Amino acid sequence: MSAVPKVLLTPSEYLALERKADFKSQFFRGEMFAMAGASFEHNQIVANLSRSFGNELLHTKCPILPSDMRVAIEPRYHYTYPDAVVVCEEPRFADEQFDTLLNPKVIVEVLSDSTEKHDPGRKFSAYRNMPSVESILFVRQDFPHVDVYTRRDDESWLLTRTSKLDDSVAVKAIEATVAMKEIYRNAVFKPISEIGVSQPPPS
After folding, report:
1. Which of 26, 88, 127, 170 is the most exposed, having the fewest neighbouring CB atoms within 10 Å of its CB?
2. Number of Cβ within a 10 Å radius of residue 196
3. Residue 181 region by backbone torsions, left for phi larger than 0, else alpha for psi between -120 and 50, else beta
4. CA trace torsion 23, 26, 32, 33 (10° rounding)
5. If you average pLDDT over residues 149-173, what whole number do you get?
6. Residue 93, burial from CB neighbour count under 10 angstroms (0-12, 13-18, 19+)
7. Rg from Cα positions in the chain
């Protein structure tokens, strides 16, 4: 007995549904995936990042935008909601709704227990294919650790890892430096025995 074929959506169908929905869903190769609510720790770190980088960028033309900013990854088979994005050029959008960004310069993802298993590999692979993206940050929420991927002139990527609260995270693409203590201000970390750490995405 043959299985019922899966019905896949077009990007236009996804956007039509998403704009009417009461909750956010990501889109990948024809399928929608509802996004789970974030934990207190996740939201705390995102708020810290947005405030800290926002202060660094206050007098620049590079605003930092929160997680409600949907991003379309060309050729638009993948739509996602990063935890924060920075835009420096004139923002470009997928259509006249102006709610789906095409040209972020910096992308930030805060990794939870569930997203840590797939976000770094799949999303790094997708984000690095966006010509506008110059830096990608993966921030662990359960212990102090930030990976910054920086696009080189030859299109390869440089990985810089920071794991000490006394250090700072530098993002060359926007000439901003933020202290780890500010990123993790008021964060409560899990006991070491409860943390599972996987391999980072390839450089």
Report:
1. 170
2. 8
3. alpha
4. -70
5. 96
6. middle
7. 17
C-alpha to C-alpha distance for 55 and 177, rounded to whole angstroms = 10
Residue with tokens 């935890």: 83
Q: Quick one: tokens of 172?
A: 């060359």
Q: Report which DSSP code applies to 23.
A: S
Strands 70-73 and 100-101 turn out to be parallel
Q: Which of 101, 60, 96 is nearest to 84 (CA)?
A: 101
Cross-strand bridge partners of residue 139: 110, 146
Q: What is the DSSP letter of 176?
A: E
Instruction: Give the per-residue SS3 of 73-141.
Output: ECCCCEEECCCEEECCCCCCECCCCCCEECCCCEEEEEECCCHHHCHHHHHHHHHCCCCCCCEEEEEEC
Report all structural domains of the chain as residue ranges with CATH numbers, in order of start. Answer: 38-188 (3.90.1570.10)
pLDDT, tens only, 101-155: 999 999 999 997 655 555 667 788 889 989 999 999 999 998 999 999 999 999 9
| Closest CA relative to residue 128, chosen from 149, 113, 108 | 149
